[in-house]
Amino acid sequence: MREALAQAAFELFTERGYEQTTVDDIVARAGVGRRSFFRYFPSKEDAVFPDHDRCLDDMTAFLKANPGDDPVAAVCDAARIVLRMYTANPDFSVQRYRLTREVPGLRTYELSVVRRYERALAGYLRRRFADAPDGSLRAEVIAAAVVAAHNNGLRSWLRSGGEEDPEAEVDRALSFVRDVWADAANGDGVGPSGSGTGVLRKGVGDGADGEVIVMVAPRNAPMWRVIQSIESTLSEN
Amino acid sequence: MREALAQAAFELFTERGYEQTTVDDIVARAGVGRRSFFRYFPSKEDAVFPDHDRCLDDMTAFLKANPGDDPVAAVCDAARIVLRMYTANPDFSVQRYRLTREVPGLRTYELSVVRRYERALAGYLRRRFADAPDGSLRAEVIAAAVVAAHNNGLRSWLRSGGEEDPEAEVDRALSFVRDVWADAANGDGVGPSGSGTGVLRKGVGDGADGEVIVMVAPRNAPMWRVIQSIESTLSEN
To answer: Do you know which Gene3D superfamilies this protein is assigned to (chains A, B) (predicted)?
Structure first.
């Protein structure tokens, strides 16, 4: 029933336009009564985004279950749950993206949905950073950065009409955030498990790929200077 | 006239509640006709936030005039224009903050205002990063981070009832973002002036602080692994 209503609503929105379609039109098309509509959707806008509530629940459950030795990685993975909701139905997602661009009321609704995801991510990070200096600030900034990166990748896929590889787009965008925040997430600059070293040493030990970089830096250099130096060395060669 | 209408509207919203106040109530209190209201404000929500349009114009003009040898600093300064709008009238800002918390329609309106600021900042950064790889992604993520940091500082001041030092709160929050993004803002890994490498070499060359770290990694190691390894090394010693 819920799906039939969402389906009918979307057909009518694309046929006649969003503003021109009433709830009465939708229930007539779906062959149900008006009260059934409001049992499933508080408003016409909600019928355009029928899966966000479930997706938000999934995200919350995922974060709750996450042991979280790497909180920034965890919120990036949580953001990917939203991506999968979009990619589960590419045609619908692309059409809805086009519809949303045209209807100011839907854009506003979408903003409030995005904000709810952001708050869920920030809430998780706030708990994880409870003991860090400026934990709440870190949590909110990182959540906003993750959401912005995810949406940049998602939009790029939607604008392509669903042609590009959505996972690759979003992975690239999220890596950008992860790389930058891997350091800043922890106030003291100490990483969670040190597992990176093992991987790196393995790379050197078995001689795979051959090339290595050797980096010399003052111990007290801020992390961004170190990164800048590494990137600069890589781009010189 | 515009100010008198905003004043009347706000008095009524706090006296009777937002939902219980009509545009007719507002024009009666201000002693003007109904059409005057809509000449200045498209909706009741707009009367609650009468200065955002002007503030957005100021921000746009500021960014346009900014020579911008440091784009991240420029958007942080642009965000401070919003702070100054709030601090210009602390009592009103604090009362409005409380009202907005209570009225879902105002929260939604505020989200769309925040989004407009974010778009202005992102648009500026996108132009500044036009030649950088992933310039659009960088622009959107940094704009979102700056807005989140600004709002964290601003909210902290508003929640205190306007008691704390708002400039200090927001400066601290924006510094957090600036420190992290100072490096990432430039796609090629070379800072605005290439100063990062210079600082590191200087640190080694003159023997200041003595200690150095030497890091070996496969050339193709992802940046987050490299960072993790450095952090792990630092924490071991």
So the answer is: Homeodomain-like, Tetracycline Repressor, domain 2
Which range among A40-44, A81-85, A173-177 shows the weakest confidence by mean pLDDT? A40-44
**Alpha carbon B1 to chain centroid, angstroms:** 30
Q: How far apart are CA B15 and CA A45, in angstroms?
A: 32
All residues of chain A having their beta carbon less than 8 Å from the beta carbon of residue B209 are 218-220
The answer to whether residue B206 neighbours chain A at the CB level (below 8 Å) is no
Note whether A92 and A198 are within 8 A (CB): no
Residue type, B229: S
Burial class (CB in 10 A: 0-12, 13-18, 19+), A3: exposed
- Side chain identity at residue B70, one-letter code: D
Which residue, A45, A39, A78, is CA-closest to A178? A78
What ipTM is given for this predicted complex?
0.75
Phi and psi at A179, nearest 5°, equal -60, -45
Give the residue-averaged pLDDT of A218-223.
62
pLDDT in tens, B49-64: 988 999 999 999 999 9
Which residues in chain B are contacts of A216 at CB distance < 8 A? 200, 204, 212-214
Name which of A8-22, A193-207, B108-122, B132-146 the model is least confident about: A193-207
Q: Which of A75, A176, A76, A171 is nearest to B184 (CA)?
A: A176
CA atoms within 13 A on the CB side of B27: 15
CB B225 within 8 A of CB A221: no
**Packing angle between helix B166-184 and helix A166-184, nearest 10 degrees?**
120
Q: B171-197 pLDDT, tens per residue?
A: 999 999 998 877 545 544 333 332 222
| Length of chain B measured in residues | 237
How many interface pairs between A and B have CB atoms less than 8 angstroms apart?
A: 231
Q: Show residues of chain A in contact with B151, CB under 8 Å.
A: 140
Burial of B178 (0-12, 13-18, 19+ CB in 10 A): buried
Helices (H), chain B: 2-16, 23-30, 34-40, 44-48, 52-65, 71-87, 90-102, 104-128, 135-159, 166-184, 195-205, 223-236
Could you tell me the domains of chain A? 2-46 (1.10.10.60), 51-184 (1.10.357.10)
Residue A24 has pLDDT above 70, yes or no: yes
A41: left (phi over 0), alpha (psi -120 to 50) or beta: beta
Cβ atoms within 10 Å, residue A126: 18
